[in-house]
Amino acid sequence: MEVFNISRITTPKGIFRLAGIADNTPNATTLISVTSLDILSTDGWQALAVSTDSVQAIIQSIQLQIIDHLQVDNPPRLQSPETTKR
């Protein structure tokens, strides 16, 4: 498990800043748990209560963008030629 912080991510639901924990177990689906979420409003960053159902729905709807962002920041390590031989 790794702690992550995303200072800014643009999604169809808005612009967010978030922190959380990612489980990047090899050969498994990446699971994330968001511990804080802010949305950029016209007045600046506004904290959202991650425990509410409406915010959980937002997190669920942007989960793929979050995972994609984390994978771009931390690309999987390349396998050595020996491990790819059959």
UniProtKB/TrEMBL annotation:
<protein>
    <submittedName>
        <fullName>Uncharacterized protein</fullName>
    </submittedName>
</protein>
